[in-house]
Amino acid sequence: MNLPYNSSERTQNAERRTQNAERRTQNARRTQNAERRTQNAERRTQNALSFCSNLKAYSGYFKDTQKLLASASGGAATAISEGFLNKFSDGVIIGAAYSQDCRSIEFACVEKIQDLQKLKGSKYAATDKKIFIDGQYQPVFKFAGDILKLNKHVLFFGLGCDIAALNAYLEHNKINTEKLFTADLICYGATLKEVHTSYINELEAKFNSHVVNFTVRFKKHGWTPFFIRAEFQDGQIFTTDFYKSDYGYAFAYFAQQKCFSCNARGNNHQANITIADYWGLNQNMPGWNSNGVSILLTRSQKGEELVNLINRDDFILSDADPEFAVEHNGAYFSIREKIKGYDLFIDALKNQGLHKAVIKHKIYTLPKRAIMFVLRLPKRILRKLLKIFGLYDFVKAILHYK
Ligand SMILES: Cc1cc2nc3c(=O)[nH]c(=O)nc-3n(C[C@H](O)[C@H](O)[C@H](O)COP(=O)(O)OP(=O)(O)OC[C@H]3O[C@@H](n4cnc5c(N)ncnc54)[C@H](O)[C@@H]3O)c2cc1C
Ligand code: SF4
C-alpha cells in the first residue's frame, strides 16, 4: 500500500531534485572547462610551433657529475663559456652572480675558466644592472660597451630583457658589436629583488650567522625538485625544497611588474642563443640525465658558433627538436598574468618582509569556506591564533571581522 505523500517527503524530493540539477550544472561546467583547456592546449601548441621556423636545437649535459651537479640544468652556459675563453684569449664573459654578501644579485665579469663558478646556477630574483670592477660599481651595459671598444670578444649572459637593453645601449652609442656574442635564458619571470634580500635577512636572523654561499638550484636529489642551499659563516648549512619555501612561493606567483608585458618572447628573443632546462624530456627518451639536461636554441650564425665552441669530450651534445623543446617550455613564448592579491603581497613584502607577505597572501587566497570554518572557532581561540601569527588586524580588515 502506498503511504500518503506527506509534506516532509515532498520537501526532501524537492531538495534532491535541486541537488541533482546543481550536479548536472556542475558536470556541464566541468565538461566546458575541459573543452576550453583542450582548446587552449591546442592553441598553445600552434603558438609554439609558429616560433620555431628560425631555430635549431641541441640538448646536452656535462659528463663530469660534479660539474653537472653544480650547474642549474645541464651546464650548457658554463660549457659555452669555457669554450669561449679557450677560443678567444681576449675573451670576457659577463653574467649574473650573487653579491659578496649574498644579499643581492648583480653582474660579474670572468676572464679565467676557474672563475666561472661564480656565474653558475640560476638567480631567480631581479639583478642590479651594475658590475663591481676595480673597487667600484659601473653600469653593466656601459662596461660591456667599453670592453667592446677595446676590441675584445665579449659573451654576455642575461635574461631576454637584459639582452634587449644591452643591444639598445650599444646601438644608441654606435658601438661596434662584431665581437659581441649574446646568450639569454628562457625566462618565466624574475621575482622582485626585495624577495631575495628579505629571504637572506630572515635566514640570517634565524641562524644568527651570515650567509656566505647561496643557491636556489641545489640538486639534492638530482635535477628536480629544486632545493635552496644556504651555507653560513659559522659552518651551518640549511637546505629546503625551493617551491615549499617563501622564496619559491614568491618566484612562482610574483614576478616583477615589467614581466607582465615582457616583450622578449617568441620571435622577439634577441640573443644569439637561448639556453634553458630541457623540460619535456623524460627518462625513457634518449639524452636523459637525472642530474639535469640543458636545451640550447640557436637563431643566428653566432649562436651556431657558440655551440661549436663546446668541448664534446666534456659535454654530451645531441641534436634536438626545437618544436618539442618550445612546446614544453611555455615561458619561451607566453607571458604570465598577474595573480589576485599581487599588490597586497608587494605592499606587505616592502613593509613587513617576505615571510609575513607570503602568509598574508596565502590567507587572502584561501577558499571562503575555509575562512568561514576558521571564523566559527570560538572567538577567544581565533583571536589568540591570529595574534600569535601577527595577522589579527589584517584578517579583521579583509573580512570586516569584529
Ligand atoms: C629568472 C629566471 C627564470 C627562468 N625561467 C626558466 C623557464 O621558465 N624555463 C626554463 O627552462 N629555464 C628557465 N630559466 C633558466 C634555467 O633556470 C637555467 O638558468 C638555464 O637552464 C641555464 O642552466 P645551465 O645549467 O646552462 O647554467 P649554469 O652553467 O649553471 O650557469 C648559469 C648561467 O645563467 C646565468 N644566469 C643565472 N641567473 C641569471 C639571471 N637572473 N640573469 C641573467 N643571467 C643569469 C649566469 O650568468 C650563467 O651564465 C630561468 C632562469 C632565470 C634566471
Ligand atoms: S619575464 Fe621578460 S621582463 Fe621579466 S625578467 Fe624575464 S625577460 Fe625580463
Blueprint (SSEs and pairs):
Blueprint: H1 7-49, E1 56-62, H2 65-69, H3 76-87, E2 92-98, E3 105-110, E4 130-133, E5 136-139, H4 140-149, E6 154-159, H5 160-172, E7 180-185, H6 193-207, E8 211-218, E9 227-232, E10 237-241, H7 246-253, E11 273-277, E12 294-298, H8 301-308, E13 315-320, H9 322-327, H10 342-352, H11 354-364, H12 368-375, H13 379-388, H14 392-399
Parallel strand pairs: 2-6, 6-7, 7-11
Antiparallel strand pairs: 1-12, 1-13, 2-3, 4-5, 8-9, 9-10, 11-12
Flavin-adenine dinucleotide binds at residues 71-78, 95-96, 119-124, 127, 157-159, 185-188, 190, 275-277, 279, 294, 329, 331.
Please, could you describe this protein's structure?
- The chain is of the alpha+beta class and 402 residues long.
- Among the domains are: 1-49; 56-189 and 262-332, no CATH class.
- The chain has 14 helices and 13 strands.
- The strands form three sheets. The protein has an eight-stranded mixed sheet with strand order 3-2-6-7-11-12-1-13, with helices on both faces. A three-stranded antiparallel sheet has the order 8-9-10, with helices on one face.
- Helix 5 links the parallel strand 6 and strand 7.
- It binds flavin-adenine dinucleotide (FAD) and iron/sulfur cluster.
- Flavin-adenine dinucleotide (FAD) binds next to helix 3, strand 2, strand 6 and strand 11.
> What is the radius of gyration?
26 Å
Distinct small molecules bound, one entry per kind? flavin-adenine dinucleotide, iron/sulfur cluster
N→C terminal distance: 57 Å
Strand arrangement in the largest pleated sheet: 3-2-6-7-11-12-1-13
Helix-strand pattern: HEHHEEEEHEHEHEEEHEEHEHHHHHH
The shape, in one word, is globular
Structural class: alpha+beta
